[in-house]
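Worked example 2:
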Amino acid sequence: MALNLNLRSTIYTVAANNFINLWKSATFPKIPFSVLILLFNRCDLSVKDEFETATLILQWLEFTNRSEMQCLALAQTIRAGLLTQKQKNEIIIRLSISTKAGKRFSKIFENVLNSSRSQRCCLIEDHIKVGYKRCGIPAWNEELRPIENIKIKVSQKIQEEKDITFIDKSRPPPCVHKDDDVLLSDEPSEYLMQFWA
């Protein structure tokens, strides 16, 4: 039976808010790749900083043989503007020695992390106020400092469409991205439901 769109959205929100617990599950390495990409793109991922996000991605790549396409797609979810150059170098070095395709993968990460496109950052005002670790601009990043005062507000219409009445209202607002629904197919959503049964 097809899952209600709101239910699918809620499943992903719960998964993002409990990501570390989900990560520790024995079956997590088998999670559908489309789900993994969606989660790693979210602002409300429950990580302590972007370096932890990158570390979790490396662990997934190290688990078994992965393709260059998967490596590239995951690398592009990292918000490099939240990483110091030292952290970027550490990620690249670790990848070069920890996977069978280390040299190829490390080159992919090096190109992505040093690309201007990877310097993107979330400036949604509500996300910054509630303290999402993947949102805002770090104090040390002088390159991104000129855009610090830009404030982005999500339209009320989108907020209403994404409002889930059975989400705990004491929690921060759910991460809202217009493209989320493209990946919200029933099969991956039903897979995630196993963890919350």
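Residues 156-174, 176-187, 191-197 have pLDDT under 50 and may be disordered. The CA atoms of residues 54 and 78 lie 6 Å apart.
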